[in-house]
Amino acid sequence: NPSVKYYYRRAVLYANQGEYARAKQDLTAAVQLDKNDALVLNDRGSVNKQLGDMENAIADYKAAVEANPKMTMAWNNLGSTYRKKGDLSKSIEAYTAAISSDPSNFLSYNNRGVAKMDNNDWKGAIADFRKAIDLNPNYKFAHNNLAGAYLKLKQYEDAVTAATKAIQLDQSYGVAYYNRGAAYE
Length: 185
Known about the structure:
The chain is mainly alpha-helical. The chain has 11 helices and no strands.
């Protein structure tokens, strides 16, 4: 009984076991049955990314957001794939689209902030990290990323404060200790 649902479920199981080639086969079979299933397209993009096939990952994420422009996860994945390829302007555009599709998604702000840091836009990164923290005060990664951006701007007291908050949220978060130590130094 070939159906999108069964191919998709088995693909998820394969992916969870690290069998990405087999997951891709099932996701491709599901896409052949429904070319507009945004979730299947997004997940095939993620499998392609795991396989190191960035071009097909991008194509799948683009197809997913074309099928469902409000699919924040696919916009985020597209942004991360562009960032991994080093195309920071397209990465920032995709994260911005994710934010437009769901302004309450703190991950989109954090991810865009990281892309802005990679692009040496420290003030833009800080604004995005602060927004991520406003949306989720317990997101340790945004606090630590904020500390890293403050370090680059030599705002050491602010870096200490942000890194300390990340450490308070997770006392085993080694990178936050490093950033705090660098700020103290």
